[in-house]
Amino acid sequence: MTYCVAMNLADGLVLVSDSRTNAGVDHIASFRKLYTFGMPGERVIMLQTAGNLATSQAVINLLRLRLHGETQNLLNVPSLFEAARLVGETLREVTAYDAAAAASSGIDMSCSFLLTGQIRGEPTGLFNIYPQGNFIAATTDTPYFQVGESKYGKPIIDRALRYDSELEQALRCALISFDSTIRSNLSVGMPLDVLVYRRDTLVLPQGYRVAENDPYFEEIREQWSNGLRSLLAGLSVAPDFYLD
Amino acid sequence: MTYCVAMNLADGLVLVSDSRTNAGVDHIASFRKLYTFGMPGERVIMLQTAGNLATSQAVINLLRLRLHGETQNLLNVPSLFEAARLVGETLREVTAYDAAAAASSGIDMSCSFLLTGQIRGEPTGLFNIYPQGNFIAATTDTPYFQVGESKYGKPIIDRALRYDSELEQALRCALISFDSTIRSNLSVGMPLDVLVYRRDTLVLPQGYRVAENDPYFEEIREQWSNGLRSLLAGLSVAPDFYLD
């Protein structure tokens, strides 16, 4: 399993992905699940994935192989909508290629993608591409999407994130969402890949990898944990009739 | 869907269940999902259920019908372990009775139970009874179980609950766990059934039903929501290299 979150906000994009791919007893491994495509000054496109790693890697490889051909690819599509369509079509191609093997083995080979980015002349965008290859776009009302093991970390984002949240505050919210998920679910694990894109810069950010024992992440995890406990302890005491 | 939590603590038991049974568009309904059995001064047994309502109601009805017979029943089994076995066996009986219809329709008719209580001479106990009829018992290390839509509300319990937590504080923690779940998932809804049992009293508590707009629940929801936002806002600011 995995957990990825992407936020499309007034000031830009915030992406965080974990890198745990399989939490079975013998096969815990780390793979980067955040992929970037770009032409400085013209476009940035980022993909995060959750689900079957063979499928998602095949999709990414095909997308990359085709970057330098004549046909439609992630570096020449005129809009993010068409970029999302292209990823969806490539996912359908891989799924069809593997369909017989998937059916006979009973293995779930499906995967999902979050596509984010900006193409010059367009606002930033965020798309959630389903295993079926169709997709939805984020809106100002729902400015974020999650894929993978999303439930543990959803409440804090639902409470705290707004379209006009500052990027740095949104990043903190995303990191806390990961903290909650990692504490409650073994299949999501460090390191985390963080990427913050400021609107209209049109340059791929460097990104940051949050490793185990990262001092800042440790610091806010502890602040959060202590803060939650005192917050809970400070809530009004339940009336007696609740306990009778 | 539904969400139920039960905690077996040093001072007694804390139970909270929602009452939403089906969040499909046309069939949102409320049913009590907390059932009690007892003989004052001798035993109290509580059951919470999640999953198929027809199955869980059939199990409860059979358990009730058999209360006054000669055979083993919830009012004469000598231990909570045997009570959990009896519930598991009755669940297997109902599942077998419905198996052909379930298989041909493809409908998931499974359900789970949380069994809590105390029988004189024994400590309090908590069992998680799986759809297969087998079960596990809570321990001092893991003093709580959830059934149903459990992920949204798990992080706060993992952080805040300990075996020696006071009942009133544990109840607050459970209520906040429900608040997180209700905010993030439509299929879990009010009213909530709350039941707090103090160890060794051996009398069924009256319980309390938390209705929509319950003043205390509204109060702590708001305290929690505001507190979380200021906690998040007060975390250390992310270093610049996180955002580059």
Key phrases:
five-stranded antiparallel sheet; 244 residues; alpha+beta; homodimer; Glutamine Phosphoribosylpyrophosphate, subunit 1, domain 1
Q: Quickly count the helices of chain A.
A: 6
Known CATH architecture of chain A: 4-Layer Sandwich
Domain module tally of chain A: 1
Mean pLDDT of chain A: 91
Overall 3D geometry of chain A?
globular
State the gist of this model.
Two copies of one chain form a homodimer. The first copy, chain A, has helices at 53-65, 80-105, 154-160, 167-184, 215-234, 240-243; strands at residues 3-9, 12-18, 34-39, 43-51, 111-119, 125-129, 135-137, 144-148, 192-198, 208-210.
Your description of this structure?
Two copies of one chain form a homodimer. Chain A has helices at 53-65, 80-105, 154-160, 167-184, 215-234, 240-243, and strands spanning 3-9, 12-18, 34-39, 43-51, 111-119, 125-129, 135-137, 144-148, 192-198, 208-210. In chain A, strands 8-1-2-9-10 form a five-stranded antiparallel beta sheet, with helices on one face. In chain A, strands 3-4-5-6-7 form a five-stranded antiparallel beta sheet. In chain A, helix 1 (53-65) packs across helix 2 (80-105), helix 3 (154-160) packs antiparallel against helix 4 and helix 4 (167-184) crosses helix 5. In chain A, 48% of the residues are buried. Chain A is built from six helices and ten strands; from the N terminus they run E-E-E-E-H-H-E-E-E-E-H-H-E-E-H-H. Helix content of chain A is 36%, strand content 25%. Chain A is an alpha+beta fold and 244 residues long. Chain A has one domain (3-233): Aminohydrolase, N-terminal nucleophile (Ntn) domain (Glutamine Phosphoribosylpyrophosphate, subunit 1, domain 1, 4-Layer Sandwich). At the A-B interface, helix 3, helix 4, helix 5 and helix 6 of A face helix 3, helix 4, helix 5 and helix 6 of B.
